[in-house]
């Protein structure tokens, strides 16, 4: 991979492991980033003020050693990483609109997905099995029209990525760590599949370890890359909330699945709907917002459990306890089925844990 002087300057600065604020202060000192390298003495004192003494010493040492930049480029090539910088032709224009755009994206996979329409689906690790199934279904259908963007965690994120890949569509997983830690990630099999069939993206150089504080910053990229965001699950203070809030700030359409009361993994979705998110209990709700017309072939058949619940409600409304006994489902299993049937507009809550068929 050949990089321009401007791209190399961005990678040089990124490779020094400065925090975001200092990197941005330094890169903004010159109209053309390469001037920072070409005319370093002229910028030295301003760089020192922006970086601090310790970081400035590293900057000066890196410029004194041609092996520093060569080593970075050889490392990325050896690890199969392609860097897309703020100054690259294929850097997504939508990210440049963010108040804090990443200086570089370290990518493994199909870079053409950065040029397609993209839609984000996120969910928590504690996504109910029935909601995971629905997420896979919806992600697969939406992947006919968008590249599906998500995080990398088990649960809702994994369901979104797998749904897109199973349907033969494109997907992007945005990571909160560097490529060196793919092999040790709990979901390494999923990430390996995304690298083969889609695209892995991180704003962090390969050697960056996973840290909790990196995830909120990662979530702004999920939101920024996408035309809209669907939240399929999450607690009231989950990371999915951060992604939704960033998307709303950026003027994106935000959708959320509605949940029955007292379902912990859906409390965040209900809170979002109360505040600003669009209720999405049918895929049409999302597709219509983007002028996409779905076909009847995209409708999902009812599972045996869903059919059993509808049959039990045929005689009239019933309490969740009665439904559990009639359908031979645990209350946990039944709760997931009731959520899906409500999303499909086939039943409604009557309050007091009672439901009726519509």
Short précis:
The protein has 358 residues and is α/β, with parallel strands linked by helices. The protein has helices at 5-14, 20-27, 35-38, 40-51, 53-64, 66-78, 93-96, 129-142, 156-166, 188-197, 214-225, 239-249, 267-275, 283-289, 304-312, 320-327, 331-343, and strands at 82-85, 104-109, 118-122, 147-150, 171-174, 199-202, 228-231, 253-256, 278-279, 318-319, 347-351, 354-357. It has 17 helices and twelve strands.
Which overall shape is indicated by the principal axes computed on the Cα atoms? Answer: elongated
Radius of gyration: 24 Å
In N-to-C order, the SSE pattern is HHHHHHEHEEHEHEHEHEHEHEHHEHHEE
Give the DSSP E fraction (strand runs of 2 or more residues): 5-15%
Written account of the structure:
With 358 residues, the chain is an alpha/beta fold. Helix content is 47%, strand content 13%. Strand 7, helix 12 (239-249) and strand 8 (253-256) form a beta-alpha-beta unit. Helix 8 crosses helix 9 (156-166) and helix 11 crosses helix 12 (239-249). The protein is elongated and about 85 Å long. The model has no long low-confidence stretch (mean pLDDT 92).
